[in-house]
Design the sequence.
């Protein structure tokens, strides 16, 4: 039999490795930023164009590389971080496997410009698809500049799977947040398509959080600090009243490396149990410092999933530490330097004794003692009139209510509790009733229909909002006092993407700043108190599903609004609302499924009922 096993060529092996390391432009940003930090850089610039598809450039002032090291760094498994297998269990750096540059160079046009402090000149290397195009000696500043162009130029199938520029930019921003938060002592500058996105000077951890997520984040933070023999926990958690629908502001760092840990996240949720509303998520920024020998960070190509030796102990300590910080926050009052001094106690009353209120009781009063009134009648004390001659106040106000009266009584207008507009299509012969505040039951010729009220209302609102977005004829109600809502810069980017579609639904926007947005008008169906919740839900849905084209954005917007504004299970509907909901449901184009492809109603025929009695 002929030999069939052969070694793969280097360029094919590099492309296969690139599939694990480089999944999208944000993966390149992560690897290059980590290399810059490992090089000891104190200032790092990130330049991105077209969501990273056209250009990604990282410029740092680190120690740089010599000409030989620069060329060798593009080889597979070439690294300065480890020399033997035991070094994998005592890591203090970000990158260590030596796959990043080789994988990036295999699928992009790469240009490196680097120079050490000792060398007089630097080195420039150009590579395309793992092939060295040029290597020359040039004049360069200390540090390294990595230029990555035309990502996946030689793998068009992978390039076709990339999302829109806005979605890819959002993923890059997430990676930038993680790395800049893990290293607040490093200054970062972030540019996208020629405009500034972030200018982050070197600072402490709390100020770095405020720089990224807005000034109003400062008042939400509660410090966490605990040191044991197993772990040192530091950072901040957000106050329970600021819990959001989205899970965006949740960061774990283990030894200055961002990690994802559902197990530790469950410990945080346990500490917040009973303090936040169901369906909301607390925010946290926590650093865990453990012995490098007790953590394995080499179990996933992206190095975000790690394994701790003693996770159970870490879980218990994290939960108790967060609970302790929440307890201190609830007990200890915060210092308010903007308090009005006019409300403080004057100095003249400083040493004045507090007078105890005296209660005077007439012990001789008897409520059942008979007393004489002005008309000579005898009555008891408890029914003694407060005002004598009160009958005279109503003299001359007698009204005759005989048949010749010209009085007209205006009938009270009863409005539906959930429907405020639209042509009434109620069939007064239809009988409906609500079952367990969840289902609406109505009769048909062949039997009866059981309708899930929440899913039915979602279908009605979904088609209505989708129609408004399509024909752009939504009705808006102006707010007497505009609302100002605070969001982080990444959330503002999402709002800017969907702002046009929100306007077609009925929202009216004022000024949109870097840390907040002003809303002057809302759709007719939206209450002013629900605007913050709706915006948070919209941002959460767009962060999780990240739609690309405009059609999917409109569809998701309509789904989110329908889900947020629909009648929930547990709400009582009057008879008019029940009938109106039934009529509107069967007037929809699709009646059997909700916007989320769940069954809306079921039919029980007369034969089905009769079979139950056999």
Sequence:
């Amino acid at each position: 039999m002929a030999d069939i096993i052969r070694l793969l060529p280097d360029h094919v092996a590099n492309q296969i490795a690139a599939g694990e390391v480089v999944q999208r432009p944000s993966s390149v940003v992560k690897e290059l930023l980590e290399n810059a930090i490992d090089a000891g850089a104190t200032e790092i610039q990130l330049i991105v164009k077209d969501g990273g598809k056209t250009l990604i450039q990282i410029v740092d002032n680190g120690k740089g590389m010599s000409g030989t090291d620069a060329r060798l760094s593009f080889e597979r498994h070439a690294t300065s971080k480890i020399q033997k297998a035991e070094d994998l269990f005592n890591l203090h750096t970000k990158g260590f496997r030596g796959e990043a540059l080789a994988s990036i160079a295999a699928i992009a046009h790469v240009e490196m410009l680097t120079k050490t402090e000792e060398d007089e000149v630097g080195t420039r290397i150009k590579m395309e698809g793992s092939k060295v195009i040029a290597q020359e000696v040039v004049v360069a500043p200390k540090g390294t500049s990595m230029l990555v162009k035309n990502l996946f130029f030689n793998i068009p199938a992978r390039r076709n799977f990339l999302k829109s520029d806005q979605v890819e930019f959002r993923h890059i921003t997430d990676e930038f947040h993680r790395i800049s938060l893990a290293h607040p002592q490093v200054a970062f500058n972030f540019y996208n398509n020629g405009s500034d996105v972030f200018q982050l000077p070197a600072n402490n951890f709390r100020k770095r959080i405020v720089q990224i997520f807005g000034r109003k984040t400062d008042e939400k933070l509660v410090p966490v600090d605990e040191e044991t023999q197993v772990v040192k926990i530091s950072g901040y958690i957000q106050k329970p009243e600021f819990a959001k629908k989205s899970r965006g502001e949740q960061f774990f760092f283990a030894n200055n490396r961002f990690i994802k840990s559902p197990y530790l996240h469950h410990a945080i949720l346990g500490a917040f149990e009973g303090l936040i509303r169901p369906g909301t998520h607390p925010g946290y920024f926590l650093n865990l410092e453990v012995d490098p020998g007790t953590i394995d960070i080499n179990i996933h190509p992206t190095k975000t999933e790690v394994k701790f030796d003693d996770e159970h102990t870490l879980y218990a300590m994290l939960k108790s530490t967060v609970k302790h910080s929440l307890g201190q926050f609830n007990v200890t009052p915060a210092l308010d330097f903007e308090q009005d001094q006019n409300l403080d106690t004057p100095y003249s009353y400083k040493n004045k004794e507090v007078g105890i209120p005296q209660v005077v009781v007439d012990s001789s009063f008897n409520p059942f003692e008979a007393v004489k009134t002005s008309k000579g009648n005898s009555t008891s004390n408890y029914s003694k009139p407060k005002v004598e001659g009160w009958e005279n106040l109503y003299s001359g106000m007698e009204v005759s209510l005989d048949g010749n009266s010209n009085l007209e009584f205006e009938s009270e207008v009863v409005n539906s509790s959930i429907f405020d507009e639209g042509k009434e299509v109620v069939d007064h012969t239809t009988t409906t009733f609500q079952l367990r505040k969840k289902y609406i039951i109505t009769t048909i010729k062949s039997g009866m229909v059981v309708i899930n009220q929440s899913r039915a209302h979602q279908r009605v609102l979904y088609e209505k909002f989708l129609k408004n977005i399509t024909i752009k004829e939504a009705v808006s109600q102006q707010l007497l006092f505009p609302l100002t809502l605070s969001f982080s810069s990444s959330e503002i980017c999402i709002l800017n993407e969907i702002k046009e579609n929100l306007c077609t639904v009925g929202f009216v926007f004022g000024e949109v700043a870097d840390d907040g947005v002003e809303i002057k008008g809302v759709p007719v169906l939206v209450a002013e108190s629900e605007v913050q919740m709706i915006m948070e839900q919209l941002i959460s849905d767009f962060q999780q599903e990240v739609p690309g084209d405009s059609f999917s954005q409109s569809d998701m917007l309509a789904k989110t609004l329908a889900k947020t504004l629909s009648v929930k299970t547990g709400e009582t509907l009057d008879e008019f609302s029940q009938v109106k909901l039934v009529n509107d449901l069967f007037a929809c184009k699709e009646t059997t499924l909700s916007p989320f492809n769940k069954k809306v109603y079921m039919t029980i025929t007369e034969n089905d009922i009769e079979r139950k009695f056999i």
Summary: Confidence is low (pLDDT under 50) at residues 419-428.
